[in-house]
Design brief:
291 residues, alpha+beta, Helix Hairpins, Heat Shock Protein 90, two-stranded antiparallel ribbon, 6 helices, binds adenosine-5'-triphosphate, binds magnesium ion
Length: 291
């Protein structure tokens, strides 16, 4: 006001009224914007709630469906087992081939159902970690036994490197084994000759790095980012022949996160791939509730 000493009292009053009018208009405008923002927030909240419900429904659907599929698949597998063992009389070579085909397909379906069930459990936050002390040598021995029937007589060698200088681990060995099993079966699937090599070494003082390296078809660098997402598969002639669901690596990523670690890949098309998982030597567990 010191700047306008020449204004008459009337002019001053009208200026003040004008300024007050402008301030009121501005306040009203702000008020409206504020209400608009609040309405948008409410809408967002509602949409988030709907998304949560949809995701919940999807998880529940997946787990019910997987449960329903398990029983009949179990029967198919045990009956094909009885037939192959010829408990009810001999089979011709052609019948053996047909039964093997049925049981192979049932096993594939059963693996897929297990993956879907795991996924649903993780999404619903219902998968639990049961850590225990164990030795890497036992884990490698179990994996070697599991894959022996598959690699025997194949053109691909499956090599487990002796883990040197590794202490015992305190983590969920079943989850870790599942990650490695999925890495190894992918490597065997996408490698027609050469080797698949499984190794373990200390990454730093409190983390261990497991790697599965192969001399297979490899993966173009621009695809590496999406590999660990649900249902992500790379188009290749091998892929068409071998199917699969594209859930394996996404489960590996989630299992690794449950174990407090992470997964990754290095790969060159035509040369081979290395998939790895880095986890803490000892998983941090919530202190037991003593009440
Ligand atoms: N060792 C590998 N070499 C080359 N490509 C690979 C390798 N591992 C994975 N991939 C590519 O990544 C894709 C995703 O792998 P993922 O294990 O998630 O699915 P999948 O093996 O196709 O099916 P599923 O594991 O569900 O049976 C594969 O389809 C393949 O294209
Ligand atoms: Mg796979």
């Amino acid at each position: 006001m010191a700047e306008s000493p020449n204004l008459t009292p009337d002019e001053q009053a009208s200026l003040i009224a004008q300024l007050q009018g402008e301030a009121t208009a501005l306040r009203n405008e702000l008020e409206e914007t504020n209400q608009g923002v609040l309405a948008l927030y409410a809408e967002l909240d509602e949409q988030a709630e709907q998304l949560r419900q949809a995701s919940d429904l999807k998880s529940r659907f997946l787990s019910y469906m997987s449960h329903e599929f398990r029983t009949p698949l179990g029967s198919i597998l045990s009956i094909t087992g009885l037939l192959t063992d010829e408990l009810d009389g001999p089979l011709s070579p052609e019948q053996h081939k047909q039964v093997a085909f049925v049981s192979g397909a049932a096993r594939e379906l059963s693996d897929m159902v297990d993956d879907l069930l795991d996924l649903a459990k993780i999404e619903a936050g219902r998968i639990s970690i049961s850590p225990a002390w164990f030795d890497m040598l036992d884990l490698f021995a179990a994996l070697r036994g599991m894959f022996r029937p598959i690699v025997d007589g194949s053109a691909v060698d499956l090599i487990f490197e002796e883990p040197v200088g590794l202490p015992r681990l305190f983590t969920d060995d079943k989850k870790l084994a599942q990650i490695l099993r999925k890495f190894i079966s992918n490597s065997l699937k996408f490698t027609t000759r050469g080797e698949v090599r499984v190794s373990a070494r200390l990454e730093n003082s409190d983390h261990v790095r497991f790697a599965v390296s192969d001399t297979g078809i490899g993966i173009a660098p621009e695809l590496h980012g999406a590999l660990f997402e649900d249902f992500s598969q790379v188009d290749s002639p091998l892929q068409k022949r071998l199917r699969g669901t594209g859930l394996g690596l996404s489960l590996c990523k989630r299992f690794a996160e449950l174990l407090g670690g992470e997964v990754g890949v290095q790969s060159t098309p035509g040369a081979g791939s290395t998939f790895f998982v880095i986890i803490p030597l000892a998983i941090a567990v919530e202190p037991a509730d003593e009440t």
